[in-house]
């Protein structure tokens, strides 16, 4: 039996057990999936538990970075991003992986939007942006513009990526609008519009500047359609929420736990039908 878990704080809202469960059921793998509320100060004790009781586990921020010193080794992808969202337990030792970026790229491709040669605008500069922006550049994006209210955070990501295709701009409706005029993909990586978050986009007029072929991607999956996505849909733009990314990164993590290649799209369809 495969024994896995998800950890973070807060963790009650996590859909990981549901998604991994549906994926593993679809390939007839017997499993047990636990959910642990783990704060930074509790991480070390949880890791001792995991070494003896689990085959692996998933992590949310900020534990994706906090776990790094405790790992025996990390994958090339995790090393590149200095962030781990999946840990495999092998012979009582912990090995880290990052499936976030591949999960997001697969979700874009699934919507018919390969990032190669695309002009991309990202709103927000949280931890996942660092990972996604770097991956988009590696996948051949023509340009990536990161807009954030605290411009220093966006500048840090630009410096980390170290590629002239990536630039930082201060978050304002005027700046978003100006950058949307030539954008192929607009990504919301802020918590604006998320369930449990008080803030939302008061002004989405910048969506009108997007070309008609553009896709609006919101990394939020609860609610399924944020105000941003609803307003984009009214304009006839293609939209996607964060659920596909969540599903694909989970399936890729399951490949790691099982040490086995899966048919991503077949398992994806099975998961989507279940949830």
Outline:
The chain is an alpha/beta fold. The chain is built from eleven helices and twelve strands.
Gyration radius over CA: 19 Å
Instruction: Round the mean pLDDT to the nearest integer and report it.
Output: 95
What is the number of helices? Answer: 11
The percentage of residues in β strands lies in: 15-25%
SS content category:
alpha/beta
Regions with little confidence, pLDDT below 50 for 5+ residues = none
Number of strands: 12
Largest sheet: 6 strands, mixed
The CATH topology of the largest domain, please? Rossmann fold
Question: If you had to describe this structure to a student in words, what would you say it looks like?
Answer:
The chain is an alpha/beta fold and 275 residues long. It is 40% helix and 21% strand. The protein folds into 2 domains: 2-98 and 244-274, 3-Layer(aba) Sandwich (Rossmann fold), CATH 3.40.50.10860; 102-241, 3-Layer(aba) Sandwich (Rossmann fold). The protein has helices at residues 16-26, 43-53, 63-66, 76-81, 100-110, 127-138, 151-161, 173-180, 227-234, 243-258, 264-274; strands at 2-8, 31-37, 56-59, 73-74, 86-90, 93-97, 119-123, 143-148, 166-170, 185-188, 215-218, 238-240. The strands form 2 sheets. The chain has a 6-stranded mixed β-sheet, sandwiched between helices. A 6-stranded parallel β-sheet has the order 9-8-7-10-11-12, sandwiched between helices. Strand 8 (143-148), helix 7 and strand 9 form a beta-alpha-beta unit. The longest helix is centred in the C-terminal third of the chain and has 16 residues, at 243-258. 44% of the residues are buried.
């Amino acid at each position: 039996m495969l024994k896995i878990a998800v950890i973070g704080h807060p963790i009650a809202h996590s859909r990981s057990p549901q998604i991994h469960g549906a994926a593993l059921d679809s390939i007839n793998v017997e499993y047990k999936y636990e959910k642990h509320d783990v704060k930074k100060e509790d991480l070390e004790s949880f890791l001792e538990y995991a070494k003896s009781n689990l085959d692996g586990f998933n992590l949310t921020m900020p534990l994706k970075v906090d776990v790094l010193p405790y790992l025996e080794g990390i994958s090339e992808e995790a090393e590149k991003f200095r962030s781990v969202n999946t840990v495999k337990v092998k012979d009582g030792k912990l090995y880290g992986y990052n499936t976030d970026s591949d999960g997001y790229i697969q979700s874009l491709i699934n919507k018919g939007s390969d990032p190669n040669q695309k002009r991309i605008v990202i709103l927000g500069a949280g931890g996942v942006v660092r990972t996604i922006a770097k991956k988009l550049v590696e996948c051949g994006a023509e340009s990536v513009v990161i807009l954030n209210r605290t411009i220093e955070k966006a500048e840090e990501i630009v410096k980390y990526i170290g590629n002239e295709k990536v630039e930082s701009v201060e978050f304002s409706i005027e700046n978003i609008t100006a950058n949307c005029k030539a954008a192929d993909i607009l990504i919301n990586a802020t918590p604006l519009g998320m369930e449990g978050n008080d803030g939302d986009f008061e002004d989405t007029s910048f969506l009108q500047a997007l070309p008609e072929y553009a896709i609006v991607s919101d990394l939020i999956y609860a609610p399924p359609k944020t105000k941003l996505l609803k307003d984009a849909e009214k304009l006839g733009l293609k939209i996607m929420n964060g659920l596909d990314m969540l599903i694909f990164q989970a399936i890729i993590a399951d490949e790691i736990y099982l040490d086995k290649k899966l048919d991503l799209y077949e398992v994806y369809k099975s998961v989507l039908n279940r949830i």
